[in-house]
Every structure is written in structure tokens, then in C-alpha cells.
Amino acid sequence: MSSLSDASALREAIARLRDAALAFEQAHAARIATLSAPRQVSARNLLHYIAVRQTDLRPLQLQLAQLGLSSLGSLETHVVAALDAVLDRLDDLLGQPHPPRAAPACSFTQGAQLLQHNTAALLGPARAGRDVRIMVTLDTAAADDPGAVAGLVDAGMDLARINCAHDDPAVWQRMAAQVRAACSARQWPARVQIDLAGPKSRTGALQSQGRVLHLRPQRDVRGRTVEPARLALWFGSGSPPAAAGAQAVLPARQVAPALPARLPPSTSLQLTDARGRQRQARLLAHDGALLLFAFDRAAYLEQDQPFSLHADGALLCRGVLDGIPAVPGVLRLQVGDPLLLTREPCPGQAGVRDAQGRFTQPPQVQCTLDAAFTAAQPGQAVWLDDGRIGAVIERCSTEALHLRITHAAPQGSPLRAEKGINFPDTVFRTPALTDKDVADLQAMAAHTDLVALSFLRSVHDVAALRRQLAALGRGDAGIVLKIENRQAFASLPAILLDALAHPAVGVMIARGDLAVELGFERLAEVQEEILWLCEAAHLPVIWATQMLDTLAHSGLPSRPEVTDAAMSIRAECAMLNKGPHIVEATRFLSGVLGRMEGHYAKRMALRRPLSIAGLDVPAAAQNPPASAESDAA
């Protein structure tokens, strides 16, 4: 910046930004008027931010920085106030009087206070020394383990998350009761959130690979057995009891002659395993009808496997093995392979190849999302198993989607049942609130503080949830909007503006699904844009998906996830998933957040045009469909 004329041009550019912000607010005045007074402040500020972010601010930011002025790098909570402050300083530099202006919609301090107030209203009070709340997903076992929930609260859990995609209402209600009891004993008001399952798209069941049990002894580096594989056989009636140290406990059927009451120490189990190999196991322990055997060599046992017991060269009895679990099916897919997604819920199959290795029948698996078969189009991308396998749609009908694999591991990627399927290019018009969600909401309405809406795509989904909560007398329950697909991200400005009508609302960044839907290379950018928009609306954000997963499952954190945990300071809440070491992970995250808050300060960020800064709401959005059927139509 070399002259006052340059400063004058800069002032004009900032003034144009301010005028655009106020004009955009005025264009949406009717929508603002429907909100409560505090929410009107937030709505006006959000609209100002959307208007300003339609401009590439980077040239202006660099010029302001050269003058030692605010670079507008942290204007989210108070847009017009920030612009006014810069204009005043430029007027001082130019020797001009400050022109009269109306007070900004939101001052510097008011913006921060509104965000803090809305965060407390949704997520509860902050702990001493840590403002960022911690949410923990409860395991099924927590329903009947008061010590587990109490340990989480003591370690720093502020919110307990119940995933309604698993278990049933009876289990969820016991989970919620455990949280209430633990909080009452500690006088700490941890809150309960239920995550509605929503219309999740997953792979269906796969044809089993058979009922096979692999017994594998532990060996040293020279292949010598250091710990045998242990198998318990139950010769009694009814369900077999537990056997300490046994890899499996199997019932023995069709035993003839009957098992002797007394067995010599030399008793051994002999069989020919699934590979045709002779195997012998020695008797380790004998407790009535329960016998424990040790295998020094690996064995593959199948359902109805014949066996015999011998002692000192004499046959004691013969029988067959029962109760061997089925091995889950798996498809191994390579680049170039076909894959058929079926609507009919029949078990998937691995396909049939000819002598040249070409598929005469393609591998197939059910897709659980019915809407995919009416909405998907040829040429659109499909991602399976959290983005591990990529494909493109070649042909489609109302009963099947014919895919071609485009991305897989060099040696092929396995695809199993209950794995996610993402359609990032497909526009769906199905409601986020399913019949199951409505039933689950009814069962849990009296037991929850927050309701997380999964797989929402439009403002209509938020309105449908609010109507359902009001009908249940729970219009006071907090709402968490899970942003996990391309449509929700693209519609986020409109979704936030409408969501401000609810008294307690926040946003969850579901980073796993977003990475698949928008591309892993865009995830960091997308996270920032969601954080910025929510801050402009003064709404709290929950940072979710795979936070400290390695620590929660193994007990030791990885270096990348520690950095990720530290970055969650950008949000108002960080979410942990379940795992055997979840208490340690909760305590670790609490410590990281407490230390980061001791010296964290936002740095200047350069503001190029925001990819979702538009708010082009069609007229239909003002009059949403009366039913899910009309919306789908």
C-alpha cells in the first residue's frame, strides 16, 4: 500500500462488502421476522457472512495486513461489526470523519456470548479448565454396567451418545438410566443424545463360506509350538458351559458308545480335518461332561466333523462336532470386476467365472436403500466400505444397479455385509426420518436430551423432526444436524437458517461419510467451511468420526490422531466412539483439550470465495410438502 489513493480504493471495496451484506439481509427479511429476537441476531449475522463470503477476500486481506489493520480473518461471529471497525480505521488513516451508521446486528462481544449461550443450551455446562465438551458413544455392555458409565463420567464425558442403528429400545433406555444414575451420584449433568439411524445405505447379507473353525496354536520364530490351541467338547445335554482358556466350546453329537465316566490320562481326540489332514489332540482337563483338549498343530474343523476318542490304543467313543459358527461371506473385488447391487434382500454371492477367468455371473450383494434404484443414473459414482472400494454405474433398473469397479487394492479389496454404500453423485428426495426413526423417537422421547438427525438432505428433514418432537411433547429437546452427504453440505446455509427456529440446535461434522461423499482430499477444506458457517450462525459444532480410535481400541494413540484430537479445539464438542480402552481415551482427550485451551488462539485465515456461500432457496422451500410421499414425488 503506497498511497492514500490506494487506501481510499480499499475503503470503497470494504464499504461495498458491507452494503452487500445488508442488502442480502434485507432480501431475507421475511424469514428473519419469523424467528425470536436472539435468533434474529444470529440469522442476520449468518446472512451477512454468506454475502461477504461470495467475494474473494484474499486481495483485501493482504492489503489490510500491510496497513496493520484487521485482516478480517476471524469475522465469523460479528461480520458487520468487523467491517465497521475496519472502515473506521481507514477513515482515520484518510483523515475523514466517521459517517453515521446504524449499529451492527451483532457486536464483537455479543457474537461470542451468543455462541457460548447456544453451546450451553445444547451441550450443557462446561467443565472447569475445559470449554470443549466430550461426547462418548456407549457400548451395549454399558446398559448393564454402572461402573463403566461412572468411569466415563469421571474421565470427562459430558454427553453420552446412544446409536439407534444398533440394539433396541430396552437396551437404550437402560443406557440412559445408567447415565442418569452416574450423574446423580456425581452431581454432574451429563446429557444423553440418541442418534436416529436414518436411511443408511448398506450392503446386505452375504452367502456364508461355510461353518468352519480354525484352531491355531501359537508358535515361536522357529515354528515350535509355545501355546497349544484349546478346544472344549461338551458331551452333556442343554447349552454347553463356558470353559476357561478354550478357543471354542462345541457340543458333541451322536456319541456312541456313551462317554465313559472315567477317562484315562492318555485319552486323545482324533479326527481328519477339512483339509484331509490327520490331527490328534491330548486331553488337558475333564470336568464331568466337559472335556478340554490341546492341539499342537493347526486344524480346520467343519460342522458335522466326525471324531473319535482313544486311550492306550483302544477306541472309547465316536461322534460328530456340532455348533461350529458360520464364517461370514465376503466378496473380493478387483479393478475392472463387475458388481451387481440388488434390491431384493437375498444373500449376496461371489459370482461365477469361466475357464478364462471371466465372470459369467457377476458378484452381487443387496443394497438396503430402496431409493437408490429409482434415483441413481448411469455414469454416477458409487463408493463402498467407507471409500475403500470405488465403482461407476454402467446400467440401472428399478431392481438392480450394474457397477464396474474402478478403485480397489492391488490384490483386490474384500467387501462384507453391513458395509456402507455412498452415492455422492445421486440426488435423493427421500425423507431422512424413517418409520423406524419415528418408532425409536417415541420409545426414547422421555429418556433423551438431544436427538441427532442422520442423513438429512434438506430443510424439509429438519422441519419433519421438529414436528415429530412437538407431537411427542418434546419440542424442548435439542437437535443435532449430522452433515454427512453432499446434498446436506450444499444446502447447509439454508438448513442453518431454518434450524435457527429451534431453541437448541447444533451441527455434527460426520467426517467419515463426508470424506467419501466429497473426496478425501477435500475433507479438511469442508470441515473448515462448516465450522465457519456454524460460527457465523452462533451454533455449536460436534467434531465426529474416528477420533482417537486407535487409542480406544488398542490402548495406545497414533501420532496423527493426537494431532487430530488437538485440532478438535476448533469445535465446541469432540466425539469418541466405543472401544475397550474408551475410558483411557476419554481421559486422554480431556487432558489434550485442557492443555490446548491454555494457549489456543485463532490465526488469520485467507478467505477465498466459499463454495457453499449461496442461499438459493427455491420457492418450494417456503411451502414444504405436506407429506414424505409428496416430497419423494
Question: Main β-sheet, in a few words?
Answer: 8 strands, parallel, barrel
Q: What is the number of helical segments per DSSP (H or I, 4+ residues)?
A: 19
Q: What is the residue-mean pLDDT, rounded to a whole number?
A: 92
Percent range for β-strand residues: 15-25%
What is the CA-CA span between the terminal residues?
Answer: 57 Å
Q: Which quaternary structure do these chains form?
A: single chain
Q: Let me know the number of strands.
A: 29
Overall helicity? 25-40%
Strand order of the largest sheet: 1-2-3-25-26-27-28-29
What is the name of the CATH superfamily of the largest domain?
Answer: Phosphoenolpyruvate-binding domains
User: What would you report as the Rg, rounded to the nearest angstrom?
Assistant: 31 Å
The CATH architecture classification of the largest domain is Alpha-Beta Barrel
CATH class of the largest domain: Alpha Beta
Overall structural class, as computed from helix and strand content, comes to alpha/beta
Shape: elongated
Query: Low-confidence parts, pLDDT < 50 over ≥5 residues?
Result: 618-633
At the fold tier of CATH, the topology name of the largest domain is TIM Barrel
Integer tally of domains:
4
Structural overview:
This protein is of the alpha/beta class and 633 residues long. It folds into 4 domains: 4-106, no CATH class; 130-199 and 430-597, Alpha-Beta Barrel (TIM Barrel); 212-321; 331-422, M1 Pyruvate Kinase, Domain 3, CATH 2.40.33. The protein is built from 19 helices and 29 strands. The strands form 7 sheets. An 8-stranded parallel beta barrel has the order 1-2-3-25-26-27-28-29, surrounded by 6 helices. A 7-stranded mixed beta barrel has the order 7-8-14-13-9-10-11. Strand 13 (306-311) and strand 14 form a beta hairpin. Helix 1 (4-27) crosses helix 3 (37-52), helix 1 runs antiparallel to helix 5 and helix 7 (146-155) crosses helix 8. The longest helix is centred in the N-terminal third of the chain and has 24 residues, at 4-27.
